Amino acid sequence: MKKTILALFLAIIAFMGIGVISRPISASAEDISPIQARSACLMDKRTGEILYGQREEDPLPIASMVKIMTALLTFEEIEKGNLAFDEGITISETAAGMGGSQMFLDRGLDYPVTDLLKGVIVVSANDACVALAERISGSEDVFVRKMNDRAKELGMTNTLFVNATGLPKEGGHSTAHDVALMLRELTSHERYYDYSKIWLEDYTHPDGRITTLTNTNKFIRFYEECDGGKTGFTSEAKFCLAAGATRGDTKLISVVIGANDSQTRFSESKRLLSYGFAHYKTEILVKKGEAIFSCPISRGKKSEVLCAAKEDITIMKKLNDPAYDPEIEATYYKKAAPIYVGDVLGECTIRVGEKSYTFELIATEEVKKGNLGDAYSKIAERW
Length: 383
Known about the structure:
Blueprint: E1 2-4, H1 7-15, E2 39-44, E3 50-54, H2 67-80, E4 88-90, H3 93-96, E5 110-112, H4 113-123, H5 126-137, H6 140-153, H7 176-186, H8 193-196, E6 200-204, E7 210-214, H9 219-222, E8 226-234, E9 238-247, E10 250-259, H10 262-279, E11 280-286, E12 293-298, E13 304-309, E14 313-318, E15 327-332, E16 335-336, E17 344-352, E18 355-363, H11 372-382
Parallel strand pairs: 12-16
Antiparallel strand pairs: 1-15, 2-3, 2-10, 4-5, 6-7, 8-9, 9-10, 11-14, 12-13, 13-18, 15-17, 17-18
Helix pairs in contact: 2-5, 2-7, 4-5, 5-6
């Protein structure tokens, strides 16, 4: 059964003055001058819309930004129960012998997963990447296949991983758009922020030795809204940076690939993000968990049950764009009591201009199965 949501809800959203573009948003030349890098991308983290693109689909080497996927798969293995933050991983000779950026792991000693994640996210540690890859998949080569499979699932259509570190190896490439998709997924894990905002830390190894971890992403210190990201550099890839930033309800992701020097990757990332915050604003159409929908049910102690969206439903508004009146329609499934919190009771579609957003409606309350007396009461209410 289809049912239009309350007119009051429509009026509230219309009052917000929601603006919409009927196609993926892309900044024009007069909005922002070209980014001083081979490729660049600005994405709305909430919706995945592209707000600015500069050769964002060009396949390029991305250096240590590859580690975004290594960290993502680690978090996902933990969520699946296949790994634990406090689990100790014995460091192999291969992992301990990795060159480049590292946290100087000791071969044969056990390091907890949480410390290895810290090494990957804060200091871009190649040794920690290989240690995690070996634990998750048995070998780095098998782990790389897992990386490529996950990339396909995320819609990263122009990416090929050849190792877990981003160290130079023939064939590896990605795009600014694909890197943004990858960072978007990583930053959906709240525990990521336990590591991403660390600037400087003295780390004590299992044998008592101390090394200093310094975040390679200096952006977190010098750009107030930055809450995470990943740097990268090789002579082939040049200087790269993927960065996430938040201002109010607006969450953005910028990617810069192939800047000529480190300062340029930071300054151009700042320019991209500052442009985004100045020209766009996130409007929340429906708040997560807000019980503003009512779904009819049968055989219950109540004839209706309150339900809500599982996540915030948002739209990216370009400032000064014309407002549109949204069309809101809910489809309720035929459900009978008992109903439990979290049960999917239907779906809602919000159309704004030529865009539409569809999301599940979940129960926010429990309704027990009714008895004969409840049925009589409902009949009496109709008389």
